[in-house]
Structure formats: C-alpha cells, structure tokens
Amino acid sequence: QSSVTLYGRVDLSVGSLKELGKGSETKMFQGGDGGLTTSRWGLRGSEDLGGGLKAIYKLENRFNATDGSSQDPFFKGESTVGLSGGFGTVRLGRSTTVYDDIRAVSYSANVFDSAFTPASNGVFKSGGDYNSRFNNMISYETPSFGGFYAGLNHALDNDSTKNETMTALKAGYKNGPLHAALGYQNERKTDDKYVALSGAYDLGAASISAGYNQRNGTDANGDDTEFTVGVNVPLGAVNLSAGYANSKTEKGGATSSKSSGFGLGATYSLSKRTRLYGGYRTHEVKNGAGTKTADTRLFALGIRHDF
Amino acid sequence: QSSVTLYGRVDLSVGSLKELGKGSETKMFQGGDGGLTTSRWGLRGSEDLGGGLKAIYKLENRFNATDGSSQDPFFKGESTVGLSGGFGTVRLGRSTTVYDDIRAVSYSANVFDSAFTPASNGVFKSGGDYNSRFNNMISYETPSFGGFYAGLNHALDNDSTKNETMTALKAGYKNGPLHAALGYQNERKTDDKYVALSGAYDLGAASISAGYNQRNGTDANGDDTEFTVGVNVPLGAVNLSAGYANSKTEKGGATSSKSSGFGLGATYSLSKRTRLYGGYRTHEVKNGAGTKTADTRLFALGIRHDF
Amino acid sequence: QSSVTLYGRVDLSVGSLKELGKGSETKMFQGGDGGLTTSRWGLRGSEDLGGGLKAIYKLENRFNATDGSSQDPFFKGESTVGLSGGFGTVRLGRSTTVYDDIRAVSYSANVFDSAFTPASNGVFKSGGDYNSRFNNMISYETPSFGGFYAGLNHALDNDSTKNETMTALKAGYKNGPLHAALGYQNERKTDDKYVALSGAYDLGAASISAGYNQRNGTDANGDDTEFTVGVNVPLGAVNLSAGYANSKTEKGGATSSKSSGFGLGATYSLSKRTRLYGGYRTHEVKNGAGTKTADTRLFALGIRHDF
User: Fold this and answer.
1) CB-based contact (8 Å) between B88 and chain A?
2) pLDDT one-digit tens code per residue, C5-46
C-alpha cells in the first residue's frame, strides 16, 4: 500500500508596506513577504524497513497564494530521499542547510520566525546573507546523545567549470527548556563563511531566543556582525511576540553599513491548524556616512491554515 | 489528521476546427478549447472550528491534457484560504469573480457551459470580454436568505505604479426551479465596466438559461450589448443541449462589430464521474462594413472523467 | 467518493562521470542521468463502469530530485484518459509509444533499464534515436489472446502548417517465461522509421533479454543498425545485471559512425519499495574515419524509494 502524506499550508494577509522613497502600499501578501510563512504543499512519507531502519522522503512545493504562481524550482522547499536509523539520518538532495537550522533556533521565540521577524527580513540581509537551501547535498544528522546532537551538509558541484560546493556544520544541546547550538556554513561560490551561535529557553510564562552571527567574507564583500533577541508570551489561544535585531558590515576596517529593526506580532488560534494573526515590522539600514539606504514599515493582518 | 481532498478532471476530445482563411484542421483538443471543460487537479478541504465556523481552502491547477503542460500560473484555477460561518464566507487570494458566477448562471443550460457554448467562446469575446479570475482578491459571499444572496470581490493592486484594482458585485435569487441574478464588474486597468443579468429555470422535461450583458468601455474600447439563450433536455443517461448568442460592439455611436453563433451538444453518462460527449459550435464576426473577420466551426467527440 | 492513487518515486545517486575531453566529475545524479530511473510523482485511478468497462486516467510529473526542478512539460511522464474493457484499452493524450514498449522488452534484463543500460544511454543515440513519448495521441491496445497482443498509436498534428504526425505499432507474444515482440514507429517530422525486434526469456536462475533495431532515415539522416543483449541474475535480495549494445550508422552506403558499450549493476532490496544500487556504464562512439567522438564512463551509488 501507498504511504504518502499530502500536506500543506495556505497563508495570506492584507496590510501595508512602506519603503524608503515610496509611498505606503496597501496590498495582499503571499505569506513569506508579509505573513507567518510561505504557502506550500508537499508529499512526504516513511517506510519501516525493520531493525529500526526507515526510508524517508519529502517533496515540498512553495507557491504564492496571492496569484497561484509556483515558486521556482518546483520543489523549492525540499526534494530529498534518505535512510534513518540508530546511526542517525542520511539524506540526498535539496533541502535547508544545518546552518539554517541553527539560525531558526535563534528566531524560535522571535515574532513566530515570520515576515515580521526583523533579523531574517532586512536586518541581516543588509550586508548580504547566507543561502538557506542548496541543491545536490549529502546530509547527515546524528541522533540525540542525552541532548547533544550534530549535523553536516556537503553540496556537490554538478558543474566542473565552477566551484559551487558548500559545507555546513551544526552542533547543539537540547534538553528540557534549554536549546543552545552552533552553526557554520562555507559557501565556495562567494567565499563567504558564516558562524552562528544560537540559544533558546522556555521559562514557562514566556520563552526567549537569541542569536549572534558573523559573516567572514572576502575583502570586497566585507564582514558582518549580527545580533538578535526575541520573546514569546503564550496567553491561552493567543501568542504575543516581539523581536529585535541589529547588524553591522565592515569593509577594510571601516563600517560600511549598519542596520537595526524590531517586530511585534500576535496570533489567535482558532484550532491547532488555523490561526489569525497580526504583525508589525520596521527596519532601517544606514551606509558608512550615516545616510539611510532602507527604511521599511510592514503591517499586516492575515490567516494561516495547515492541512 | 490531514483533511485534504485530492480531486481532478481529465477531458480530451478529437475533432475538427475550421477558421476563416484556414483549412479545416483535425486535431486533439485539451478540453477547454474543444471539449466540456479544461483539465484540472487540485487540493481542497475544510476544517470544523466549532460554533458553525469552518476554515476552507482550495488550490487548483489547470493543465492541457493533450501534451501534459501546466497552464500558467500553476494554481490558475484557484488559490484561496478563508472562513465560512453563519455570517457567510470570506476568502483571500485568486479565484473566479462573483461576476463570473452570474455569467455562469446564464450558460447553465447552454451546451454544458463548455467549448461548444457560443456565448463564452467567440461571440462575447468579439468586442473584448471580462477577466474571469483576479489575483489578490478579498471576497465575501452572504448566506442564502430565503433564496436571496449577494457577493463581493475587491482585487488589490500589489503594484503602486499602476491601478489594476477590480471590484465585482453579484445579487440573486435562487429557489426551487428559478435562478435570477445580476452581476457587475469594474476593471480599472482597462476602465471597462460589465453588467450581466442572468436567469435560469428548470421546467423538469427541460431547463433553460438566458443572459443579457453590457460592457461600458472607454470611447476607444467602445460598448458591447450581448445576449444568449440555451436549453438542456435530459433523457436518462443522455443530455441534449443547444445555445445561441449574439453580440454588438458600438464605438462613437456606430456599430463596429457584430457577432452571433450557435452550439449543439450531447453527453452520455457512463457513470456520475465519466461521460462521453459530442459537440458542434459555429460563430461568425462581421466588422462595421459587414465584412467577416471570423467564421469558426468546431466539431469534436470526447471523454471527460472526474476523480 | 474519490478514487485517486497518489504515487511516486525518488531516485538519487552520487558518482562520477567521465566524458571525452573533460576531466572526471564527482556529482549527484537525479536518477535518469545516473541512477535507476527518473524521479516522479503522479495521480492515477480507474472507475468500474459495470459490464467489465473501466474509465482510466494517469497524470505523471517527472522531476530532478537533485534540485527539485520539474521537467517540462509538467505531466511529461503521462497525461491520458481512456476506457478499458473486453475490447482492449483506448486512451487519448500524451504517453510513451507502443514502440517504446517493445524497446523496453529488449532492456528488461539489461542493467535494470536504467542509466547504466548502454543501449538506451549513448549507444543507440549515437545515430539519433526515436522519441519515446508523443502528445495528442490516440492509442489502442488489444487484450491478450492466449499470449498474443498488439497495439497502435497515432499522434495528431495540432498545427496545420507542419506534418508532425506519428504512427507506431506493436505486436507480440508473452506467455510463461517467453516474451517476443516487434515494434514499428514512423515519425513524420524527421521522416525516420524505426523497427525493433525484442525478446526476453526467464530461465529461473537468470533472465535474458535482447533486441535488434533498425532506423531507416532520409539520405541525409542515414540508417542505423543496432543490437543489445542483457542478463539479470537474482540472488535473494540482490540482483546482478549486465548489458552490452552496439550500433552502426550508414550514410550513402558508407559507415558514418560506430558505437558500442556495456554496463554492470547491482541492486540490494531493503524492501519491495526501497533499494540501494550501484552501477557502471561505458560507451564509445567513433566516426567513419575511426576517430573517437564520445567516450563516457559513469559510476554511481544510489537509493531509490517508491511510494
């Protein structure tokens, strides 16, 4: 018999976006640009092979629910097959990197890791940012050893005339309310190296998350130093969250740009699978001379449904 | 657990198409161009949220079954999420407009609202026609109040440099054998305004449908006056249907084009989900000087299967 | 109720490819280019219409699991609807041709009819090869009459300015361990005509398959004479297989190119739906003067999972 799970999520919101040098626009957001998350659907499953071994796969399309268009490539979200067992998990294909997992830890209590999270929307991208997904990856994740875990990606080239390989590593400790982890990603195409230190703690009445990242680039690209912190407060069906982030880029010893931003959000769960939400995010970027090069304000109200 | 329904339809036919200035072509039709309907597959579902409230979503791909190509955008048919309850239904995203619903009423007994229906294939398009779907829509439909209903769409711009908003309205009465309804659509991009008055009646031995439409355009676009009527006769597993339509476009007080056509069709149901069909459609368009600018004859035999 | 089966296959491998004039590349293969098969997912189903009659459909997407991209057109694998009964099977739409079925018989014990099968990867393509799928096809297959069967495809033109029709035929005998069949395909666009004679026999301890093909082209395209043979040895969960193929192209009575190659492969079944595999393929092509124009070595290890 077949063992496929068909799943998905549709997220749409209406709100306003104000950018530097432009008037305020009232518009509909497809989720990833002004909501909780990008809309998606996918196929996933696992097969029990005996002796604790499992075959696993996942294929995930991302799309813009505003106009029905598919994002590119078709299975942008993930396209993997692998084996899972006592030894951990080995997968082949396209997916997010283990470094992205560590970034996600630092946003776990930061305005729902959404379009309202300032770190991942504008602030950290002001100096250029890592690629969250790679094609042609061999990936390995250990099982948890009393809370300790580690993982590795290596993206192969598939074009002998270029060097577009990527290597990423993660190592962390997750036990009870505490999650602390370190990530590294080396992108050979740009020669940018990323390091992230992330932490999250669940205090019960609230949870907090924080992250500190560095990008070590070439002399031309410069280096980034980045920080973010967030707090999430659950109040029954309501969740309130806030986040702050700042970033600095240095080239040749001088600051070439500075960015900071904050976000606020609230969700109301109509069920486990359906929530209404509102969010606000602002961030600004200044160049080395102190001139604003970006000043963005986003506000939106929306709905997310999981199936 | 998941609550997704995977559904679809494959419609293919073989026939001939004769157009003005071209020989007759024998070809395969993908459904929408020479069959009952365009082939599609999709995901849809609803979640009971308690108190009569439901979360609903629908994602529908349209494709050409002749060659397997997807139509563009990927979820061309629909891409929506919303809430439904005692207050009616609110949805966000891409879908057909409520004006299109009223047009559909006027075709409901007119050669199966198919590629053989002359009104929606050639006759009404001779002067330019409305867009049946819009992106970025906020949509609301009332519940039925003793047969009376209404609905509204507003399409947001999503590009501040243009005004591409659209507003559509519908209001109708549907009770027992009678359905009468009025629709309005204002497309800001072209400044064309459409009004439709539709009616349908089920006599038992036959059902009839009719529609009267007006397009009020700019001086350059001109105005359209359109009429269609159809009849459907069910005979056990067989359905026979015929339709007629005419259209006139006026610019600056003078008639710039005239169009008329008729269609005939028969379906034979092998089951509720599978039917064989045959259809014939002809339409011609003449310009203000009385010269034919289109003269089309379509004949096809096909099969439609729903899943 | 719905009667749709959602199915698929993910196949990924890692290995090396060495081509004439290039260094050896280590890369990930999407399945079709260095594994057992191209990754895919699809929708298929049948509806019982009573009296032995069934409605059938199949829609199959092919994709590159290495990067998640869809192959083009979207339902490249198949897009058909039809009826099946005591009279045989009639289908409309896009699919593989019946000639391709006969080619497949000749590869049935030849390195798993995979990217490691030399005949279908490089050797037979050295002189140009047939198109395995066509759009706009009317297809018919007889039932089996005591083992004897036949089939027919006719691809319609869908563009009156060109002649791109195709006609294909097959006839065979399959009973117990023996399968012998003949195929023919006439592609009007290139004026190439293909004939294939295929056989397969299951000896129990091993199965063998062989094929002899001819392409009769225009004077400019030339003619091909092709041969392949393969053997498959099942050893419990392991399957070992080897294949050999050669091809010769003649233009104006002179040999314009010669090609040969062999392949080796092994699969290990973790379950009916999941297998690990390794394979090796080499082929070379020489032109009329005896100069090598291609010299390819492929080696890969991978995993295939069906769902």
Assistant:
1) no
2) 999 999 999 999 999 998 899 999 998 999 999 999 999 999
Q: From the CA of C100, how many Å to the nearest CA of chain B? A: 18
Q: Are B260 and B283 in contact (CB under 8 A)?
A: yes
Nearest-angstrom CA–CA distance, A78 and A62: 9
Residue in C with minimal Cα distance to A78: C68
- Tokens found for residue C168: 């294909």
Tell me which residue in A6, A47, A158 faces C274 most closely, judged by beta carbons: A47
Instruction: Give the Cβ contact number of residue C177 at 10 Å.
Output: 11
* Half-sphere CA count of C94, side-chain side, radius 13 A: 26
Token pair listed for C274: 């999941």
Mean pLDDT of A70-78: 98
For the stretch A221-232, pLDDT in tens is 899 999 999 999
CA dihedral C60, C63, C68, C72 (to 10 degrees): -90
- In angstroms, rounded to a whole number, what is the distance separating the alpha carbons of residues B56 and A28? 18
Interface with C, mutate which of A74, A76, A134 (most C CBs under 10 A): A74
Q: Please answer yes or no on whether C136 and B67 come within 8 Å at the CB atom.
A: yes
> Where does the pLDDT of residue B11 fall: very low under 50, low under 70, confident under 90, or very high at 90 and above?
very high
Phi, psi of C133 (to 5 degrees): -130, 150
At position A299, the amino acid (one-letter code) is: F
Q: Residue C71 and residue C64: Cα distance in Å, rounded?
A: 7
- E strands present in B142-222: 148-155, 166-175, 178-187, 192-202, 207-216
Q: How far apart are CA B10 and CA C60, in angstroms?
A: 13
Q: Give the tokens for residue A40.
A: 């998606």
Q: What is d(CA C240, CA C238) in angstroms, rounded to the nearest whole number?
A: 7
Distance between CA atoms of A110 and B25, rounded to whole angstroms?
A: 62
What's chain B's length in residues? 307
Listed residue (A123, A120, A127) closest to A215, CA to CA: A127
Residue with structure tokens 């109708």? B172
How remote is the C-alpha of C139 from its chain's centroid?
Answer: 18
d(CA C174, CA C178): 6
Interface of C with B in 115-144 (CB under 8 A): 135-138
Could you give all domains of chain C from N- to C-terminal order, each with its CATH number? 5-95+108-134+197-306 (2.40.160.10)
Q: Is B2 on the interface with A (CB under 8 A)?
A: yes
Nearest alpha-carbon partner for B296 in B280, B277, B282: B282
- Give the type of residue at C299: F
SS3 of chain A: helix, strand, coil, percent, to 5: 5, 65, 30
Q: Which of C9, C10, C24, C40 should be substituted to probe chain A, the one whose Cβ sees the most A Cβ atoms within 10 Å?
A: C10
CA distances from A132 to A2, A101, A120, B305 (A): 31, 9, 11, 42
Q: Which tokens hold the place of C112?
A: 């798993």
Measured in whole angstroms, the distance separating CA A16 from the mean position of its chain's CA atoms is 23
Closest CA to A11 of A77, A73, A62: A62
Nearest CA-CA partner of A110 in A232, A258, A267, A285: A232
Q: Is the pLDDT of residue C179 over 50?
A: yes
A75/C69 Cβ within 8 A: yes
Strand partners, C173: C148, C180
pLDDT for residue B133: 96
